[in-house]
Amino acid sequence: MATIPDVYMPNPNNIPKRRVDPATAFTVNEPNSGQPSRTGSTPQQRVNSLGEIIDWLLPQTVGHKRYQPTANATFCNIYAHDYCKLAGVYLPRVWWNADAITKWKAGQNVAPQYGVTLSEMSANALVGWFRVYGATFGWRSSDSLTELQDEANKGSVVVIVGRAPGHGHIVAVVPETDTHQAKRNAAGAVTTPLQSQAGSTNFNYGATSNWWTTHTDPGFWIHD
Prior knowledge:
This protein is α+β, with helices and mostly antiparallel strands and 224 residues long. It is 24% helix and 18% strand. It is built from five helices and ten strands.
């Protein structure tokens, strides 16, 4: 089968897309702002840089309108996309529609055009995307909350995604810090991983809920 490439919302003039602006289909893009990335050759260096990404995105900051819920929408998918993008991992904010995918599979090149060849990706849509395309883009699945947290603590990018009526949810599982920890049982196994999210409630770090237990087809995904 022909390779279907990654795709981002076209921004040919590289116009800044800021955290303080309302959510759009574009990827966050703030040149000359100290925008971080995942760097380093050791697990601790990678962990530190993931912490810098969270500290820069700061989804719970009210002034970061990009992630703040409105009366009609929440933006977990946008926050997860931005987190992954800064970490150097592909999680689509937009993706090829069915007709474009058919053309790619037939060996044709397809131009990215919003509403023509591209559609925005909700959390519900990402559930299916991971299952079909996740491995192609370096994601692997897990069924262990302890593994999810252990891998995040090594500097891997980790997400949990689930489907629900209306809209689903997606969070990043993030490295533990001195002040923010996952929940574990007496044997040391993780019962609630440390998460970072935008949604109906936004938080930089939290381990308060196993929300995916009320969602359909939850997926647990790791990218090294």
